[in-house]
Structures are given as structure tokens and as C-alpha cells.
């Protein structure tokens, strides 16, 4: 058997534990797909795979058990999925050749405002827009989008996590001082609201922009102001040094988000260690330092009047030095 | 007198009205809904014909135009107390038949209940004039026909949106003159909703024994006491009184009233903390019986006008209509058993 | 149109502490209340509170106010000569015509004595209006006893039972709940009964009288609710189809027993 594993991997096929067989990963930007595509996935799994489908942690489908010699045939069947990618604006040169890259992972998203009342925006739509900006690309980057700080998509474990924010607008003339917002914020969120003189005072620096005060308010005294985004950066799992992402930017608009992501690829391109088979962006930042990362990611970015940037990224948390705290 | 108006004609009519009146009606505020990507339809200033929303029920009722959410009752400065003056432009309110009927309920409480009229309500109310927006059919959850509030009186004019034009029934000036100026004479008979998909049967009498019924216990678990049902209700009139000291001058401040809700914690709290109606099921019973029984015992008409807002705004899917129908069934069963 | 929400200033003539937390304020005013009515007293910036009138005379009323909330705490800081603000009187008081010519029993517990103090003093000055007045007054402990001077005077005029729930050593008087002493009152068939006090005290005391063959129609109670306006508008004191601030706070028990919050 002779196969170029590097080429296979770039084509979204995996080298699996079963010799001679591969597994195909199907991208589903934003984790949302017309049900009509399921027939195609079922067909590939039954005809070429072992009849099963795995739901990946990145919201795609993985079809295992495909014989390596069937890859060209399977690739031809993927045309409708690639056409869908093209419809999002992804440049696809050859619709018969399968996925053009796999390094940049599927952009994941929580279900967003199409379904979830807590979501501050349509996460799926933004995921699809970002897909068109960054794919195809061989750099190993993980991006996830979530509608509110509940972070159901686990944006804090990504290189770039995008969290929807809304600036709540308060009309004191409609507030009946029922305290629903104040109590909720104090008990479940960050306690950014206080009742003073029968009027709510909001600490804008403390506020997460989660929008729950708007959801709680029975009087529409709180309403939705402009939408913003918070970016948490450089979270990761893994064997070396897992960590939760920290807030890199907040209260920035969509245009700024897209520019920052574009800049991220330029930063990687400048600093990646090409002597390694691949280098994950988090480890590049470990080498260049945060200040270079920050400077280069903000090139040409208009943070707007409310935008805030982290002076440094305070990573807390996880340690593999188990001898410090394990018994025995 | 009846008139047919083009949108442009009606627009010109509104422009002329705006010189002497402030005009309120159902208006859509884009992106201001509770949930992301939704709009808020509620009462607000009407600046042009296209502002008027015909295809949705407003989240809040027109009452806030003349029963403000907050109203200063008096100002104090040291020992001196002064009454706020009111200079109010004549005000037109575009509203549906149910909401117009609701005004008579508010009038009962503020003008007829107790030894004297509420002067703050009365002085605003005299500047308010109504224009009926005719309903061709109700919205989901409406039950005006059951409540007898599908028809209304007390408006200066009635307006109907029909295809690409407006039909105006002018019942008083300035509408007759305006109709003459901006429209074509036409035969306009009032149209009322004759039937709602939802029927609510109000029990004639509610036995006090039903106060302990398990029906209310279910609501005790379901209701979150947010108060939306009452705050969106066109007939709810409860308020609390607050004293506020101005932060920039502690010698000065005001006493004001602000809408209150029997569903929200604190409504029955007495100084010292005792609550007489702590249970949420009891609060729902209190509200429902006020709307369909207690008010009628006092004033001869039901308070509820069947607008359907309380059900639409309830995040917990509690249906007032279903509750009333259940009560009615329980009373019928009791009547048969007796 | 008159503005019923505008309070009028009233000078504090005297402050008489009854207990560490209950003060009686004598206020200069020409309000002429019926016994059992209440006023809204306020201090600008602190708010209004409904307080029953504990006594009245030419040119003054008395309010006995317990320090329990924001307004009452602020009131307790005042001194004679200071000004407070009043609206009222509000509500329906005791139906004196219903009592005339009959035996009257007044059972009052704790701060519930305040709304009947003026009435008792009235009958002390007009004893001929009744066929006897019996008093049954209960307090938590001897330290909680209000209106000591009045009670001492009443004891010389009317058959009076004064009891405390818990009596420390050295308390010479009676110990026990008001309910336990109902049976000591020689009730006449058409006796009129007033019961005022905390909700549980009212419930059990009324039950005791009914056990002694008193009809609900012969009993009146005074209810306490959080009135914000006193005018039948704000809705806070509504129970069933009644407004405590209008039809109450005094209700005949045949009515009150059907009032469910």
C-alpha cells in the first residue's frame, strides 16, 4: 500500500488505528446543516464506511471504516457539501477532489438566537461568515462562537472564542424597581447591577453584556442596545499545558472580530516554526510573547469607542504537576 | 360620516393633526424585543402613517399614555411641598376595541372607587381622545367576544385598513372636517370582530371554597412571579408610592407613584416584613378573580377585556383563559352536585 | 379638582414612649376622625405609612407608632416641635350605633390596643351609651404593655382583664393568652364584640367568642394591610371585592371571615 499520509490528512482524512482504512471528517460550519445532507452522509457511511457515523466534538460528522483506495470515489460524492461551502463564499477550486484543507478546524457554534433565548445573536450565521474568511487553510486553528457567557460551545477551550455581548439600555422611566434584574445579576452573574434610590445602576466595567437583565425585565425598561463581541483567546486542551482562554478583547463589533481573525493567520504565517510538522498557535504565542501577538492581531483593527484590550492574558488554572497535590 | 383615504391622504391628515395633538399608537421598535433579533411592538409616538402597526398586538397596553409608569405626586424642598403642574397637549390614542373598553375599567378605579377621584389621573384623562383601530379578526389568544368587549364606544373616529386605503368613520370633530379635507366621502359602517377562535366562559359566581382548590397549587409551582401578565394588562391599575431624595441635593426630592404588580414579591409586604399573600398560586387566584369576579361585584362589569396579552407575554405558558374556563367548569360541577 | 394625595403639615406636640419601640405622637391637626380610622403619615424622603389613630381630641390626634420600617424609624428620631405630614382620616371606623345600648367587649392584643384606645376613652367619658364595657387586653410581656396610665384608669371604670403571654417572676397580674380569659366575661345574649390584634390572635379569639354562642354578626375586627394610597386606587389592600382602606379597616366578622388574601 502506498498513500501520502500528509496529503490524506490535508484532504480531511485521518490515519486510523485500522490499517488500510481511513475516516472522513465532514465540516459543518456553525454545527447547523439542512437535514437533506444527512442522506448523503448516510449513503457514504453505508456504501464506503462501516455503516456508522461519529458526531465529532467539533460539530462535524466523522465517517469511519472507509478503505483508503476508495478516497477518490468518496471525494467525488462530496461535491454537494463543497458546493454548500462555496455558497458561503469559500473558494473551492475542484468540487470533485474533496475537502481542500483540514488544519483550520470546523468553526463551531452554540445553537444561538435561532433557538436559544439567552443568545445575543445568530451564532450560526457568524460561524458561516468566518468559515468563508479562514477556509481553506492548513494552519491549525480552532474557533468557536457562543451566544452568551454561559459558553455552551466551550469557547474558552479554543484558540479564539467569540462570545456575544449586548449593551443593555436602561429607561429609568419604565423601571418599576421590581429588582428582577438586580437579584438575577447578583445571584447568577457578576453582580453588575445595584438598586439605588429605586433606580438601577449598572457597573459597565463589571457587566459581561450577557443580556439577562433584558430577559428578566417585565417592563422593557432594559432593552437591547448595540451588539458587541468578547474574544477569549488561547485556550487549549492537550498534553502539555491545558488552560482556559482569557479575555483578550471585549465590546468590539463584528468588523473588528473579522479583522482580528484575519490578522491571526498573518501572525501565524510570520512566526510559525516551519521546522516542525505543525505548530499550534498557542505554542507560537508562548514563544513570541503576548505583546507581539496583541500588536499584530490589532493591526488595522478599529476597536470602536467601547472596545477594551487585555494588558496581558492572565491564564489561571490547570497544572500537570500532580505531585504538588496528589496523595501517595 | 364616512371617508375613504389614500395612505398619502391619511398621512397628510396626521400631519395636520400633529400641529395640535400628540399622537400615540402601536409602533414597532426594531431590535428592541426581549430576545435577540426580535422587535418590540408597543405604544409610542406616531410620526407617520407607516408607524401604525396593524399586524401585531402590542406587548404593553395604551394605558401608559395617560397612566404613566411613573408619576410625580409632589415635590419637596425642605419643609415646602409643591404639587407638580401639568401642561399636556391634547392627545390622540389609536387603539383597539378591547383596549378602549379597558379605559372604562381604569376610569372606575381612578375616578369612581373611593371617596374622591384621583386628581392626577383625572387631569390627564381629560386631554385624551381615542381613535378606534378596527380589528378584522383578532390575534391568537384574543377573547374579546367572550368578554363583550369586541365593540366599543367613546371614540372620536374609527379607522379601518382595507387593502391599500383607509376607511374612516368620523364621529366627532376634528375628524369630520379632516375627512372632508383629505378623503372622499364613502359609506363606512363599523366593523366588529364577531367571533374569536378562543371562547372563555366566565363563571357567574365563584364559591369561596374554590379558593383552596388544587388548581392554584399547580400555579404555585409554575408561576415565576415576574409580573408580566399584570404589567401588560390594559386594566391593571395598581401602584406603589416611593419617596426619592435627589442625590445631588438631599434637601430636595419627590414623592411619586409607580406601577406595581400583585404578582411581584413585596406587593403585600407590611412594615416589619409580614407578607399576607406569599404564595404564588394565591397571587394568581387573587389576580384572576379580580379580573372576572371581584371587580364585577363592585362595578357591575368584568375587569378583563379579553385582549390576550397576559397569555402572550407569560414566559411560563400560563393561560388566563384556560384558568377561567377551568373555574367555570368547577362551578358548573358544583352546581350539578348541589 | 382637589388633590387627595397632598399631605398637610402637622406639628408634633408631644412624644410619649410607651415601650422602647412604641412611641405615641401627639400631633396638632384639625382632623376629626371616627374611632378606628387611620391616617397616612409621612416624612418627605422617607415615605408614607398607614397608622391607625389611637386617640384624638380638640386640635390633636394621637398615633402610636412602632418602629418597624424606614418611615417609622425616621419618625422615631423626631422631637416635639418637628413637623410631619398627614393625609386622612381614611377608612370606616367602628359602628358606634351598632354598639349603643348593648354590652360591648373589646379584646385587643399588643399594638391592636392602639386602634381601640380612643374608643375606650370615648366610652369612659360616655358610659351611658353602653350596657357595660368589658376590656380584655393582652400583651406579650409586661415590658410590652402600652398605655399604662390609660389602662390604670380604665381598670377603675370597666371590668378589665389585663394579661401577658409570659410573665416574669414578680408580675402580679394574669398570665396567659387573651383566648384563655374569654370565658371569664359574663356575656349577655346580644353582646357586641371587638377583636383587634395580630392575625393569629384575631383568628383564635374570634373562634373563642363563637364557641361562647356569639354570632359572627356580633363581632367586629380591624384588619391591617399595607395601604399605599388610602383612597381605593393603589390596590395593595384589596381583598376579594373589598378595599381595606375604604370598607375597612373595621369589618363585621360575618364579612371578614370570607375575606381571603
Describe the structure.
The complex is a heterotrimer of chains A (328), B (338) and C (261). With 328 residues, chain A is an alpha+beta fold. Chain A has helices at 5-10, 37-47, 71-77, 79-88, 123-134, 180-188, 212-216, 254-271, 281-288, 290-297; strands at 13-15, 21-26, 54-55, 61-67, 108-109, 143-146, 160-170, 193-196, 199-202, 222-233, 246-252, 308-309. Among the domains of chain A are: 5-88, Sulfite Reductase Hemoprotein, domain 2 (Alpha-Beta Complex), CATH 3.90.480; 108-165 and 229-309, Sulfite Reductase Hemoprotein, domain 1 (2-Layer Sandwich), CATH 3.30.413. In chain A, the strands form 3 sheets. In chain A, strands 5-6-7-10-11-12 form a 6-stranded mixed sheet. In chain A, strands 1-2-4-3 form a 4-stranded antiparallel sheet. In chain A, strands 8-9 form a two-stranded antiparallel ribbon. The longest helix of chain A is centred in the C-terminal third of the chain and has 18 residues, at 254-271. Chain A is globular and about 80 Å long. With 338 residues, chain B is α+β, with helices and mostly antiparallel strands. Chain B has an 8-stranded mixed sheet. Chain B has a domain at 2-60 and 85-185. Chain C starts with 7 loop residues before the first strand and ends in a 5-residue tail after the last helix. Chain C has helices at residues 70-76, 96-99, 114-125, 148-157, 199-211, 253-256, and strands at residues 8-17, 22-28, 38-43, 47-57, 60-66, 83-90, 104-109, 133-139, 160-164, 174-175, 192-196, 219-222, 238-239, 242-243, 250-252. Chains in contact: A-B, B-C. Chain A binds chain B through residues 113, 117, 119-122, 147, 164, 166, 173-178, 180, 197-198, 211, 214-220, 223-224, 227, and chain B through 29, 31-37, 40, 42, 59-60, 68-70, 226-228, 231, 242, 244-245, 247, 258-261, 264.
If you consult CATH, what is the topology of the domain at 108-165 and 229-309 in chain A? Answer: Sulfite Reductase Hemoprotein, domain 1
Helix/strand-derived category of chain A reads alpha+beta
Number of helices of chain B: 10
Strand fraction of chain B equals 15-25%
- Overall mean confidence score, pLDDT of chain B: 95
User: What is the makeup of the main sheet of chain A?
Assistant: 6 strands, mixed
Strand content of chain A: 15-25%
**Cross-sheet strand order for the largest sheet of chain B:** 3-2-6-7-8-9-1-10
What is the β-strand count of chain A? 12
Oligomer category = heterotrimer
Poorly predicted runs of chain A: none
Q: What's the SSE pattern of chain A?
A: HEEHEEHHEHEEHEEHEEHHHE
Mean of the pLDDT scores of chain A? 96
CATH superfamily of the domain at 108-165 and 229-309 in chain A: Sulfite Reductase Hemoprotein, domain 1
InterPro entries (chain B): 4Fe4S_Fe-S-bd (IPR017896), 4Fe4S_Fe_S_CS (IPR017900), Helical_ferredxn (IPR009051), Sulphite_reductase_A (IPR014259)
Keywords (chain B): Iron, Iron-sulfur, Metal-binding
Protein name (chain B): Anaerobic sulfite reductase subunit A
Pfam families (chain B): Fer4_22 (PF17179)
